[in-house]
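Batch manifest, entry 17 of 40.
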Amino acid sequence: MRSLRERGLKVPTDQDPEGVVLVTSDAHWGIKNAVKAILPGASWQRCREPLRPQHLPPSSARPAPSP
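Output type: structure tokens
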């Protein structure tokens, strides 16, 4: 998260309204803490939908395991 911040990721301000307002991730404590530390003011929400291959572009979908 810190490297994203160093590359320009930011939260919106009155002077610059563009930025991250919501981070959605699993409930990993490290991600939640990083959002608080690196993007103060951004909200965090737990993703309740697991990422499935049909949500990925075809080039990144993994082949089905062999029986």
